[in-house]
Amino acid sequence: MDKKNKDKITRVIILKNARTNTSLVITLLITFLLIAGFTAHFLFSYLSADNSADTGASFISNIAESTVKSRPCLKISDIKVAEAHKGRILPETESEVNVGDSLIFTITVQNNGNMNAREFEIVNFLPEKLKVIQADIKENGKYYTSDKKIIWHVGELKAGGKIRVSFKAEVGREFVHLEKFISVFRVIYNGEALAEKTFEKRVNALAVLNRSEIEVKDINGGDIWALDKLRYTILIKNTGEEDGKDIEVYCPIPAGMGYIDGSATEQGFSSNQNKSLLKWNINTLSKGEVKKLTFEVFIVDYVTYGGKIKTGFYILDGEKRIELDNPVIDVNPDVFEKIVCMGDSLTYMTGYPEILEGLLEKEFPHAEFNVITSGINGEMANQAIRRFDRDIRIHNPDIIILGYGANDAGEEIEYYRYFMDVLIKQATSTGAKVFVFGVGYIDLTVSKWIGKANYTDFNKMLEKEICPKNGAVYIDLFSEMSKNPRKYLKPDGMHWNEEGTDLAVNIIIRTLVDYMDGDGRIISSSL
Fold it and tell me: Can you give the pTM of this predicted structure?
């Protein structure tokens, strides 16, 4: 290519680049002018609205501050006041407190800002007659006697966090009746009060009855059960500065209780027709006086399944209703245990299960035992296995008592070992506590029982091997019956007579009691 053409191409490239750069510059210039115009229009409109150059300067300053400055936002979110002797929170609708009351103040301060608050104070200014109890100022608050104020210094409260402080104060007896007091709470940050709340109440300085008490005692002693008797004692106390007049005490009897006629303090007493509401009128209760009212109730029988009963006793002092601190009565549920006695003729014919039921309920007055007899004359262990699910498991028993061996004796011991092992496994699989008694005694001098001489080996196998292996409890009847078999056996030499049955039942019940708690509940984990 000659020099002339090269120069021509170079001029074309330079020209194109120049046009591109010019377009970019023009675009940037137009964008800048648009932004500048918009900003100028906005500032002009803002300044025109106020006609002040100072306003413009303030506007620019505010924009700058909002972009670089944030601060905590501390607020008193809650003030709760409770009566110290009851712990009851005073509702806002309750306009009075009583002279002499101790009040617990709890103040909650919250940081709703976007930064942590450091080194601020929570301050409470107390009225003159509200006496702070310095030992009960919590969270390291400090009381300043001369200024009558409490200050809590807070090192840091994170954004979104909250802190609670509390103290106790007594309503002084210097208050006159219906005098109002105001307690002021403030949050001080960098010398500035960011939040303030007040608590105000009037003071009742006449008769004060809210320290009255209820005491309840179980006359029967121990835990409370259905049919137990309770004695209520109500102590009406006037801790105010004046005598109380025309005071009424109301004791509605709740469901689950019944009033015992003639048990109430007579003076000023009355009741409605069905004795479900008891009432006393007290004409005068002197300053500092305590009036004692008593009465008795019983727990009705249908509360055998247990439950909680709360009374709603209260006092009317003129138009003012004072709720007493009513204790909750916790009634224990009666114990319900189902026992199945499975066995041969010694179970079926002797009637020991029925005797066992009566003795257990006498031993445990708050328990009800349902004892089911499932005995078959002449039955052996292998036959019991076949009917177990149909006759025993269906009852879902808590306790199973097995009694086999008298008919099995004389057979091969290995057969008995196998079948009793299976039967006991069936019994324990129900979740019931399983007890097994062996043969009490067989008189081998009776000709028809000569072949049963191995029955004592059966007993030893049950006691030493099969019962421990399966977690069952062995009941030893042989040791006692063998001491005087003629006393305990019928003439046939095997079946128990009346004395033998009583002996067997007493041995059985003594064994069962070892595996029950004090109320008659079976302790399934004990072995």
Answer: 0.64
